[in-house]
Specification:
Blueprint (H helix, E strand, L loop, with lengths): L6 E6 L1 H4 L2 H16 L3 E6 L2 H11 L5 E2 L2 E2 L3 H25 L3 E6 L6 E5 L3 E4 L6 E4 L5 E6 L2 H8 L2 E6 L1 E3 L5 E3 L2 H12 L3 E6 L17 E3 H9 L7 H13 L5 E5 L6 H6 L6 E4 L3
Parallel strand pairs: 1-2, 1-13, 2-10, 5-10, 13-15, 14-16
Antiparallel strand pairs: 3-4, 6-9, 7-8, 11-12, 15-16
Helix pairs in contact: 2-4, 3-4, 6-8
């Protein structure tokens, strides 16, 4: 187990859950690490699945700057998909390989508190125009209660968190899964945060996976944002990585979760897969 940190937080994108082979390989890695005594927490999204169900139900899908606008219909879809089908499928996939996974959301036991995001100014990168955007029932995390997570980890369970949270009045919010993973990692003092997605990492040219940047520090990643190399849907993901590192997480890794078997273990050990982000070089 040399090189493995005590707690690893893994974020799975919904696109990975659509890939049966990739999901099975990652579930096997998660189970193996958990059975070796590594504390594994999984946070997941379900964007593609939510979009597909919304389409079937006749709801439109609206996003601004890579972030989903959650009106009343979209929130109902999120509850059905995130805490329903995707969470159950992921728990079952991990359980198949012998680990004891437990399906949760931020709502359970007041695990993650959130407040409704106020309207925010958004600048269009193409036109330069600025508009005020109301994201609807989208939450910003205000607190993480680690008691339940710590209890489960100490007993050898694998918490699997759907990205729904609530405030103290019981209002439910859709929270970006990257943000959930980052907040949980910081609250638990995780040794590593791994963002699994469907791209090879941070690319100098988003159309060319061979332009992957293996490693960069905070100053370098901020420069990549400033010059437009990091943009679109990758931008909010990287911003969560920056927040995690700034809050004390030693390393954050963005990895293509569909690439090959045992990739998650390599990432957990700090091997050079995807892009590794650290505070310093």
């Amino acid at each position: 187990m040399s090189g493995l940190p005590g707690i690893v937080v893994v974020k799975l994108g919904g696109e990975i859950l659509l890939n049966a082979g990739a999901l099975d390989g990652l579930a096997a890695d998660i189970a193996t690490l958990a059975l070796e005594g590594i504390g594994i927490i999984v946070a997941h999204g379900g964007g593609p699945q939510a979009d597909a169900l919304a389409e079937k139900l006749g709801y439109g899908v609206r996003k601004v700057g890579g972030r989903r606008i959650t009106d009343a219909g979209a929130l109902e879809v999120a509850k059905m998909v995130y805490r329903g089908s995707t969470n159950v499928e992921l728990v079952a996939a991990i359980g198949k390989h012998g680990a004891r996974a437990v399906g949760l959301s931020g709502v359970d036991a007041g695990l993650i508190r959130a407040s409704r995001r106020p309207p925010v100014a958004y600048r269009d990168g193409v036109t330069g125009g600025e508009t005020l955007v109301d994201f609807g029932a989208v939450g910003d995390i205000t607190a993480v209660n680690t008691d339940l997570l710590t209890l489960l980890l100490e007993r050898g369970y694998v918490p699997v968190l759907a990205s729904l949270c609530a405030d103290e009045q019981g209002s439910i919010y859709n929270v970006n899964a990257d943000t959930v993973a980052q907040a949980v990692a910081v609250a638990l003092g995780a040794g590593r945060l791994i963002m699994l997605t469907n791209v090879a990492g941070i690319l100098r040219d988003y159309r060319d996976p061979t332009t992957r940047i293996p490693r960069c520090n905070l100053a370098e990643v901020r420069a990549l944002i400033a010059d437009g190399t990091i943009a679109g849907g990758m931008l909010p993901k990287v911003q969560n990585c920056i927040e995690a590192i700034s809050a004390g997480i030693p390393a954050v890794q963005i990895v293509d979760g569909t690439a090959r078997p045992s990739l998650l273990r390599d990432a957990a050990e700090g091997k050079s897969v995807g892009t590794i982000l650290t505070r310093d070089t």
